[in-house]
Design goal:
By secondary structure, the chain is an alpha+beta fold. It has nine helices and five strands; from the N terminus they run E-E-E-H-E-E-H-H-H-H-H-H-H-H. A hairpin with a 2-residue loop joins strand 2 and strand 3. Keywords: Cytoplasm, DNA damage, DNA recombination, DNA repair, DNA-binding.
Length: 202
C-alpha cells in the first residue's frame, strides 16, 4: 500500500497531478483544493495517498493533508459515493466545513458539490453523523473530528487497519494515538496495530 509520495510536481491536469519520485511518474487523482495546494510545477511536494484497487485497475488518489484523505475514506464508504463524487465534495468543502455540515445535518451544504443530489447528501449526513463526533467548536476531538493524532505515515495506516476491522474512526484514532505514545517513534506498523487493537478492545 502506498500511503505517501514525496517528490517533484511534474505536471497537473483538471483532476490529477503527476508526481516524479526518483524518475518514476505517479499519476494521482486529486480534488481541486489539493491541486491548488500543491504549488508550482517543478517544486518539491508531499502528498498523502489512497490506493484504489478494482478488478481492472489500480489508481492512486492524493491529498495535500492527511485529514482530507481521512474524509475521503469515510465518504467512499457511503453507498452511492464513488471516488469522483468524494473528490467533488472535497473540492467544494474544506474538511472543517464538511465536518460541520455532517455533524449538524446540513444536507444542503453537502449538496453544493457537483454530482451530489439531495437524496445522496441526506444519506451521507445520516451515515457519517455517528462516526465523526461533535461539530468543530462544540466539544469535538479536533477541527475535523477524525484522526487528529495521525495525520499521515504509519499512524494513518494503523487507523485505517482498525477501521477495516470495524472500529469507528474516533475509536481507531484514540487507540492508535495511545499506542504511538507508548511505543515511541521507532514502532513498526505491525506493533502499532497490535497494541492499538488491545487498547481499542478495552
Amino acid at each position: 500500500m502506498i500511503a505517501k509520495l514525496k517528490g517533484r510536481l511534474d505536471s497537473t491536469g483538471l483532476d490529477h497531478a503527476i508526481i516524479d519520485v526518483a524518475g518514476v511518474g505517479y499519476l494521482v487523482g486529486a480534488s481541486s483544493r489539493t491541486l491548488a495546494a500543491l504549488g508550482p510545477v517543478g517544486e518539491a511536494v508531499t502528498v498523502h495517498t489512497e490506493m484504489l484497487v478494482s478488478e481492472d485497475s489500480i489508481r492512486l488518489v492524493g491529498f495535500a493533508r492527511g485529514e482530507e484523505r481521512d474524509w475521503f475514506r469515510l465518504l467512499i464508504g457511503v453507498q452511492g459515493v464513488g471516488s469522483r463524487v468524494a473528490l467533488a465534495i472535497l473540492s467544494a468543502l474544506e474538511p472543517a466545513e464538511l465536518h460541520r455540515a455532517v455533524a449538524t445535518g446540513d444536507k444542503a451544504m453537502v449538496a453544493r458539490a457537483n454530482g451530489v443530489g439531495p437524496k445522496l447528501a441526506l444519506r451521507i449526513v445520516n451515515e457519517l453523523k455517528d462516526k465523526i463526533g461533535a461539530a468543530p467548536g462544540a466539544g469535538g476531538i479536533s477541527g475535523t473530528g477524525i484522526i487528529p493524532a495521525t495525520a499521515g505515515g504509519l499512524g494513518a495506516d494503523a487507523v485505517s487497519a482498525l477501521q477495516n476491522l470495524g472500529f469507528k474512526p474516533v475509536e481507531a484514532s484514540s487507540a492508535v494515538a495511545a499506542a504511538e505514545e507508548e511505543l515511541g517513534e521507532g514502532a513498526t506498523l505491525d506493533a502499532l496495530v497490535r497494541l492499538a487493537l488491545r487498547k481499542a478492545a478495552k
